[in-house]
Amino acid sequence: MPANTLSKLLARTLAAGTLFVPPLVLGTDDQPDPAKDKSPGHSFHAEVFNEGPRQAAYLMQGMGNVHWKISTENPMAQRFFDQGIAQLHGFWYFEAERSFRQAAAIDPDRAIHYWGIARANVENPERSAGFIEQAVKRIEKSSPLERRLIEAWSKRVKDWPKPPDEKKDSDKKDSDSKDAKDAPKKDPKGSKKKPAVSDEVRDKRKERFKTYARELDEIVQDYPEEIELKAMLVLQLWQNQSQGHDIQSYTAIDSMLEEIFRRNPRHPAHHFRIHLWDYRKEKLALRAAAECGPSAPGIAHMWHMPGHTYSRLHRYADAAWQQEASARVDHAHMIRDRVMPDQIHNYAHNNEWLIRNWFNIGRPSAAVSLAKNMIELPRHPKFNSTTGNGSSNLGRQRLLQAIRTYRLWPQAAELVDSVYLKADEGTSRADEVQMLRGIAAFETGNKQQAESILQGMKELRRSLLIEVEAAEPSGQPAKHLPPKLLEPAEAPKDAWGEERDLPFVDRVTQDYDEEKSKDKTQEQIDRLKQTHEKNFRSYRLAGYINTLEAYAAANRGDFREALWRSSEARDTIDLWQRIAWAQSAGEHAIAVRKARDGFNGAEGEVLPSASMAIVAHRAIEANPQSKELEKWQQDRKRALERCAKIAWASEPGIQAIDQAKQISGTVAPEILWDTQAPQVKDLGDRPPFDSLGPVRWTPPVAPSWSLGAPEFQSQKPLASSEPPAQSIGSSSSLRGKPYVMILYLGFGCLHCTEQLKAFSPKVAEFQKAGIQLVGVSTEDESSLREGLKRFDETMNIPLLANSDLDVFKSFRCFDDFEGQPLHGTILVDGQGRIRWQDIGYEPFTDADFLLGEAKRLIDTPVEPK
Predict the structure, then answer these.
(1) 759 and 658 share a domain?
(2) Is 305 exposed, middle or buried (0-12, 13-18, 19+ CB in 10 A)?
(3) How would you class 197 by CB atoms within 10 Å of its CB: exposed for 0-12, middle for 13-18, buried for 19 or more?
(4) Considering the domain boundaries, does residue 2 fall inside one?
(5) pTM over 0.85
(6) pLDDT tens column, 79-88
(7) How many angstroms separate the CA atoms of 719 and 797, rounded?
(8) What is the CA radius of gyration of the chain?
(9) What is the per-residue pLDDT across 423-450, written as a single tens digit (0 to 9) for each?
(10) What's 772's domain CATH number?
């Protein structure tokens, strides 16, 4: 197709809201044979194309003012290349790869597009090396500048230095991918930790970074007018710190940035200036913080980054605005392109930091709401597990922090039985929830319930310790005497417990040290792991019991013991709670001293300011003749003055702030309390929030579909009392009923048969949960019927034929670049919304996980945007 004809077609399809994507052609020597040596769903071209985006790119709004003329003669390829560069500036690597792949699909012989894909994989050197190899193959058509950039990147990532163990694992993985491509997909939860990086490997990597920065510097010298090269060099000099290269002159790098902004005031390199001065001199990044979001408003991370600057400068309300803007832009993208939340880089981190900043400015209700929303979001073994750094775990941590910090004990009493804090029985998490239940009972007047919980936890720990002791390998008979549990020892020299040298219980790490059992059999190792899990659980229980003992002591008025107990429970009892107990015990001097430390270390935080004022005021009232009186009065005034300046951002009804206002009106009526944000002149453009996106992610509406039913299905009803399969031939026939759709690539795909074998026996369990399973194949009806005859197990899933692939395409289970279908597993709820999905070159096979997750999601209401 002539280039001008293609451009016109692209322009027309873009205007219509869709994009024609020519199949990606890698050149004469790379022409694929789809039927030869490739598993369905895998890229025809190379393994590196399996991961990453498989759907077409489109020209997005808000990608910033970036243009760098390259050697392509195709205007549309140039536009997608520019978009990819802008996305690289915003660290939006996944979408950058998509944009560069789109450029390569339009102009496949241009090497610089593959260089862009390689750069988009900067955090994955091996995958990056695979793409730069594709660029090197096409380097002959490159300009001299492009050639130098390609060669420099190739030297940076090719044969990336790795520890010997990691290299062996990589070689084995390559062998497995070639010789056993149709093996069942492995559970990502079982992956091993990466081996430690040796000094030798670290030095080699360090040299790679140094060499690359030097080559970039020389290229910049030879092309002084190319501001994109300067942006690349700035970024690399900053990134070199990760490999041990100290920045010799921050001013020199900042001057290079200034040159970029003279040419393009809203270049996305404002992002790099924020990073440059972060943790150093954040005030020098204030202009960048103002310009960063507006310079690329369609990239969420560009709104997030100013939050770094404002947080370090204790401007938490401004930081929270930026982080909420980032979340809204992410939500708009997720809903528009049907992306699951935790597949977005930085999404969970942005939201948990937003919650922390809402703590700082006094918005616990907003914090609790967002924490609960994070827990509600779809979970996935890879992207959002309950123990990783995804929304589920971070949301739970912040919800618990909100309860402790703002003493939301009535809410806690309700939350312990909700989906938000529910934990599997017999785990440390379940024990933690039980502790929370006990604290809430003490704090809401249910003493009998609280005491019962405390006693139950003691008995549980006693039984665990007996089991651990009985399992210890020893030549001596096991001693079944229950160990003493946390009996009060001699009181510490000071009430706060600062001089306690030894912990009240020996520390136990969560992970089992497998190095200690190298000479053991697998059966012995499994037994030792079980014993270790019990030992770890008993260790955590000791802390939870101690926490409850502290609250029990406070409940009966023994605040001195509560304070002593709490000195060993600082991760479960808030600092200001301990300070309150110290004052209740009559230790006003200690209370004020600790409050002062907390106040001085919490500039810009409203709750410590209000609490400091309250603590100092109580000390003054209780000890009007104290030698510390004048100092306490100064503490009170400083705290009230700070609180008066920042409390405008807090929500109404916060007890500590209301008390501080009452104290201020009595002892310092001259202090004026701000009621709105102060006028500042260093903020950038702030568009209305709703123009950026919704405040919450909501599941997108699933496309409608209709396939009918092959004849063989109408002759064979489903297992149990379900209706015949011919009634499950369209989305309308499933209206009002949740269903899981398995889009698979025919019985010729061994991966797919493994998936069907995993899900088929679970049909009854899904049905019991009110969830229908349906399979959609790439085969026509005849091939599907023949494949089912050859299937060697009972098939309980109704299977539908979709040889024209329209359903695959409508659910985005299709590689637009190579024109082939992909594996997809989709959960659609009774309202026709996509609640969960897994799309890729391999199928999702963990039926038990999806069953549990589907039940959780279906039981979780969807709040409006």
Answers:
(1) no
(2) buried
(3) middle
(4) yes
(5) yes
(6) 999 999 999 9
(7) 9
(8) 31
(9) 999 999 999 999 999 999 999 999 999 9
(10) 3.40.30.10
